[in-house]
């Protein structure tokens, strides 16, 4: 395995952990955590799109795995950017 795979794998673990913590804090009503969750999920979808688009930077199996993760994250984006949650966390 090359270094790019290890680095990307480490970034996935760190960002997933951070998103999990933000989701827990958001569920407890933290507007800041909700905002971070929106930002991180958007950045991760963009990073996944870049990984898939880069020719020969990563093996096909990783691009497929990242594509599946990206589809799940798009679901998160739809939920956290939806009208209901934006209303719940709107500035008062």
How would you sum up this structure, described in words?
The structure is a single chain. The protein contains four helices and no strands. The protein is elongated and about 50 Å long. It has 92 residues and is mainly α. The mean pLDDT is 90. The longest helix has 25 residues, at 3-27. The protein has helices at residues 3-27, 31-53, 60-80, 83-88.
Question: Keyphrases for this structure?
Answer:
4 helices; 92 residues; single chain; 82% helix; mainly alpha
Please summarize what this structure is:
The chain has 4 helices and no strands. By secondary structure, it is mostly helical.
Secondary-structure-derived class: mainly alpha
Task: Assign an overall shape.
Answer: elongated
Order of helices and strands: HHHH
Catalogue the unreliable spans. none
Strand portion, in percent?
A: under 5%
Secondary-structure map:
Blueprint: H1 3-27, H2 31-53, H3 60-80, H4 83-88
Helix pairs in contact: 1-2, 2-3
């Amino acid at each position: 395995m090359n270094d790019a795979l290890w680095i990307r794998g480490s970034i996935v673990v760190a960002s997933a952990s951070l998103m999990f913590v933000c989701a827990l804090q958001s569920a407890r009503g933290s507007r800041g955590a909700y905002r971070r969750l929106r930002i991180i999920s958007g950045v991760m979808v963009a990073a996944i799109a870049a990984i898939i688009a880069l020719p020969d930077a990563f093996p096909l199996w990783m691009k497929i795995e990242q594509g599946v993760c990206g589809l799940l994250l798009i679901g998160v984006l739809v939920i956290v950017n939806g009208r209901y949650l934006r209303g719940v966390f709107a500035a008062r």
